[in-house]
Amino acid sequence: MLFNLISWFAPSQQDCPVCGRNASQASSPIVVPVKHAEPRRILTSLCGTCRKSIPWITHAICRICGRAESCEDCIRRQNRYYALSRCAVRYDPQMRDWLALYKYRGNEGLEAVLSAMLAFAYERLCEVTPSGFDVITSVPLAPERLRARGYNQAERLAIRLAEWYGLEYRPMLLRLRHTEKQSLKTRRSRVVDMRGNFAAVPTDLVSGTVLLVDDIYTTGSTLDECARVLTQAFPEASREVYGLLWARS
Ligand SMILES: [Zn+2]
Ligand SMILES: [Zn+2]
């Protein structure tokens, strides 16, 4: 951890923040698809191999959830509480490794890299929502998981994004109970199970556009349930929720 911090902050070092290899030897220039200078700088600090391996979702086939394939989930869903969502990358085995490295080691350099990748999805989402967002928030972790890990990765990514793009970060949701590991369940039970997991935090933002950040989009049921809770907290007001996710599984 200490070593990573030092290598991250020391400008003379050219080690890739993901794999630790020397990043200054990147031979051919690789396009960094983000406009903002700070996430660009972070993505440029990756070695060529890591940069090339990022499975960017450059074209959203599903115009609702931003998936790179046509999308049965969005067609099947009868009521949707979020307006739109966008994801930065496909959740392939490499991205699974990067997220695991960040989640379980709390690596600062990786946090910056994942945030910079999320910036790509943010800039894509802004292209289809030109009116922008009033506030940015994140999907909360269960309290026991938060205690075990010490931080909520979705919140950390959202706060970095807020700093870069001048958005206001605000916690707006609570997670009420711990659910079993989602991977152990079927798709159907996951969709049902999200009900009752979240509650809205009292806030003075009654109406407006909320940008909700999470790390992985699997079925969309977490995002949709959070959006339901946020919009129904003030049923008489117009509150729109947009989703922003680091990866689409
Ligand atoms: Zn690398
Ligand atoms: Zn979709």
In brief:
This protein is α/β, with parallel strands linked by helices and 249 residues long. Helix content is 40%, strand content 14%. The protein has one domain (2-248).
Layout: helices, strands, pairs:
Elements lengths: L1 H8 L27 H8 L3 H5 L19 H5 L8 E6 L2 H13 L2 H21 L6 E4 L4 H7 L3 H13 L7 E3 L11 H7 L4 E3 L7 E10 L3 H12 L6 E10 L1
Parallel strand pairs: 1-6, 2-5, 5-6
Antiparallel strand pairs: 3-4
Bound molecules: zinc ion (2 copies).
Distance between the termini: 28 Å
Return the average pLDDT rounded to an integer.
Answer: 86
Number of domains: 1
- Cα shape: globular
Q: State Rg.
A: 18 Å
Low-confidence region ranges:
none
Give keywords:
249 residues; 10 helices; binds zinc ion; alpha/beta; four-stranded parallel beta sheet
Explain what you see.
The protein has 10 helices and 6 strands; from the N terminus they run ααααβααβααβαββαβ. The chain has one domain. The model has no long low-confidence stretch (mean pLDDT 86). The protein has helices at 2-9, 37-44, 48-52, 72-76, 93-105, 108-128, 143-149, 153-165, 187-193, 221-232; strands at 85-90, 135-138, 173-175, 198-200, 208-217, 239-248. The chain has 249 residues and is of the alpha/beta class. A 4-stranded parallel sheet has the order 1-6-5-2. A two-stranded antiparallel ribbon has the order 3-4. The structure holds zinc ion (2 copies). One zinc ion binds at residues 62, 64-65, 67, 71, 73-74.
